[in-house]
Automatic annotation (TrEMBL):
The keyword Nucleotidyltransferase does not apply. It comes from the Bacteria. Residues 27-392 form the Aminotransferase class I/classII large domain. This is Aspartate aminotransferase. Homodimer. It is an enzyme of class 2 (transferase). Pfam families: Aminotran_1_2 (PF00155). Its EC number is 2.6.1.1. Gene3D superfamilies: Aspartate Aminotransferase, domain 1 (3.90.1150.10), Type I PLP-dependent aspartate aminotransferase-like (Major domain) (3.40.640.10). Keywords: Aminotransferase, Pyridoxal phosphate, Transferase. GO terms for molecular function: identical protein binding; L-aspartate:2-oxoglutarate aminotransferase activity; L-tyrosine-2-oxoglutarate transaminase activity; pyridoxal phosphate binding. One of its GO terms (biological process) is L-phenylalanine biosynthetic process from chorismate via phenylpyruvate. It comes from Marinobacterium lacunae.
Length: 398
């Protein structure tokens, strides 16, 4: 039976990670996959996470099933983290939460439910967007359309073109938005742009689906949630996918959450039933461990403070590296305009170099970036930034 199956293209980002692991160059540099690294190039377990795991090991009493929604405590605390403790949607009981296997699980289940109720079955995604959005959303049966987002020449958001395109979307169409730290561009909407977008979404009868996978890694936990909180305030309905992979460093534990917001408490509850039914038919229920770690941290003032200080340190290191890199590129006189890297947010920016130059960096210097020229700032260190700048000077010229 399997002989009928055709070979399939690998996930380009995961493939890059595998190639990096096999590379033996002493100065090899992984700026590909979006994983945080420290000054030593390691992705450490956060101390708050290790402490929570020790507590769980000492006090956990059962591994029995928990149910399709996952842990009630995790869901409550995550809704507070994303929306803010006293948000209207929480007070009015207009949010149903589900613990999911990572942000990917949340995106897929959200898409499954939306595909069954959107009258058009269409979703608009930014051009460009995270490559994984396509299989996750189209796999659920949604038809994908693109709205203009990033101007690679000007290194700015094409906001008026984005608005013009979405103004032509049909009522019932879904719009996927990156809550913060846009992947792959690093270019985020400003508060005034979120407000204009909310007005458009309401006027056109569109359904927002916000993917917020990097809360706390841009400007701060509250600042990064401005857009998602504003939309939740302004609009009657929406869907939100979040992830604990980056801000809790729980990547392989597959920990995330999906939030469904409805018009009224009773409608939300009914839609939630449908959501849990989709979960049952996909994977029955989420893995427990990552969610238990997050719940333990968010529920304990001491661990919560430790986690926030670790998260702040990660964010500040990325911001420092953004400035370090641009300072050194400018000092070395590397050809090109890199100023956008200073003020963009999160792990990623585009370098703005050609694909051949990306390939040359990989072949000649063992420096790994995604073919588009997207690179992960958190993969750099004080030590490696000079190697990177020298390699760029050789590859693109001065
Ligand atoms: N959404 C975006 C834009 C991402 O970059 C990621 C991943 O890193 C995710 C969602 C979800 O990731 P995970 O499934 O590992 O939580
Ligand atoms: O864009 C990235 O690098 C991260 C990590 O299939 C990632 O979002 C990449 C590919 C993938 C899952 C996670």
């Amino acid at each position: 039976m399997y002989e009928k199956l055709q070979p399939v293209a690998e996930d380009p980002i995961l493939a890059l990670m595998a190639r990096y692991r096999c590379d033996t160059h002493p100065n090899k540099l992984d700026l590909g996959i979006g994983v945080y690294k420290d000054e030593q190039g390691k992705t450490p377990i956060m101390q708050a996470v290790s402490s929570a795991e020790r507590l769980l090991l000492a006090h956990e009493t059962s591994k029995s099933y928990i149910g399709p929604a996952g842990s009630e405590g995790f869901n409550r605390l995550m809704a507070q983290l994303v929306f803010g403790g006293d948000h209207t949607v929480i007070r009015e009981q207009r949010v149903v939460s589900a613990q999911t296997p990572g942000g990917c699980g949340a995106l897929r289940i959200g898409a499954e439910l939306l595909a069954s109720c959107s009258p058009t079955g269409r979703i608009w995604v930014s051009d460009p967007t995270w490559a994984n959005h396509r299989p996750l959303l189209a796999g659920a049966g949604l038809e994908i359309r693109e709205y203009p987002y990033y101007d690679a020449e000007q290194r700015t958001i094409r906001f008026s073109e984005m608005i013009d395109t979405l103004n032509r979307a049909e009522a019932g169409d879904i719009v996927l938005l990156h809550g913060c730290c846009h992947n792959p561009t690093g270019a985020d909407l400003e508060p005034a742009q979120w407000r204009a977008l909310a007005e458009l979404i309401e006027r056109r009868g569109l359904m927002p689906f916000v993917d917020i996978a990097y809360q706390g890694l841009g400007e701060g936990l509250d600042e990064d949630a401005y857009g998602v909180r504003y939309l939740a305030d302004y609009l009657p309905e929406m869907m939100v996918a979040t992830s604990c992979s980056k801000n809790f460093g729980l990547y392989r534990e597959r920990t995330g959450a999906l939030f469904l917001i409805g018009r009224t408490a009773s409608q939300t509850e009914r839609a939630g039933g449908q959501l849990f039914s989709r979960i049952r038919s996909h994977y029955s229920m989420p893995p427990a461990h990552g969610g238990a770690v997050v719940e333990t941290i968010l529920d304990d003032p001491r661990l919560n403070a430790l986690w926030m200080s670790e998260l702040n340190a990660m964010r500040e290191r990325i911001r420092y590296l953004r400035h370090q890199l641009v300072d050194r590129l400018e000092h070395a006189g590397v050809a090109g305009d890199f100023r956008h890297i200073r003020h963009q947010r999160g792990m990623f920016s585009f370098l703005g170099i050609a694909r051949e130059q990306v390939v040359a960096l990989r072949k000649q210097y063992s420096i790994y970036l995604v073919d588009s020229g997207r690179f992960n700032l958190a993969g750099l260190s004080n030590r490696s930034v000079d190697y990177f700048v020298d390699a760029l000077a050789q590859t693109v010229g001065t």
